[in-house]
Design brief:
By secondary structure, the chain is mainly α. It has four helices and no strands. The protein has a domain of about 80 residues. Helix 2 packs across helix 3. The protein is elongated and about 70 Å long.
Length: about 120
């Protein structure tokens, strides 16, 4: 009886872990076009001579046009839950998690971060 309960709890736990992993992959799919747009914006946005000093400067330079892209994406996908207040910190977070975006940021700043 006791072992059956433990086995049932393990099955439930495994199902929850599997569902969470699937949800994370789905969420990443939703944000990939936004990150690609951030990379594109970093490549075309004019910068000060020699580049921006920090990732924050680069993120601030692209935040407004990127937000316009996000608003457009929200019209087609209700799963996007980004808030306007934290967009600079979100760009920086994505740069740490996404190698392509992190590389694009590092190419544009004077003091690159380790990825």
């Amino acid at each position: 009886m006791c072992c059956e309960l433990i086995d049932e709890e393990r099955k439930i736990y495994k199902a929850k872990v599997k569902a969470a992993a699937k949800g994370g992959a789905t969420k990443a799919e939703v944000y990939n076009p936004i990150m690609e747009e951030a990379i594109r914006l970093l490549q075309i946005t004019p910068q000060a001579v020699g580049g921006w000093k920090r990732w924050t400067d680069a993120a601030e330079a692209i935040e407004r046009p990127l937000w316009l892209c996000i608003e457009e994406q929200k019209k087609h996908n209700n799963n996007i839950d980004l808030k306007e207040e934290n967009r600079v910190s979100k760009i920086q977070l994505w740069g740490k998690k996404n190698v392509e975006l992190g590389t694009a940021l590092n190419e544009k700043v004077l003091k690159p971060k380790k990825l």
